[in-house]
Write a structure and sequence with these properties.
With about 80 residues, this protein is mainly α. It has helices at about 1-15, 25-30, 35-45, 50-70, 75-80. Helices cover about 75% and strands about 0% of the residues.
């Protein structure tokens, strides 16, 4: 179980470092050193939501933070 947690943390770190890039489950799972199938199952079990939901929520959160701290236009942040 400890190995899974470290693998998931490595994957989350990778997601956070590449949040504005296009991410694939396969790339993320490689950071956790497990197959994409098992990564998705373990991630969901440990975190309580899917990888896609996590990425979507983090991107929305980052966009909201950027909008509240700058004068950027919503469309510009949305495209980014």
């Amino acid at each position: 179980m400890i190995g899974w947690i470290e693998g998931i943390q490595s994957a989350i770190d990778y997601i956070e470092d590449n949040l504005t890039e296009e991410l694939s489950i396969q790339q993320i799972a490689e950071k956790a050193c497990i197959s994409a199938f098992y990564f998705q199952r373990i991630f969901n079990t440990l975190c309580g939501f899917t990888v896609g939901e996590y990425i979507r929520n983090r991107r929305l959160s980052a966009a909201a933070q950027e909008l509240s701290k700058s004068n950027a236009k919503v469309i510009d942040v949305a495209i980014k």
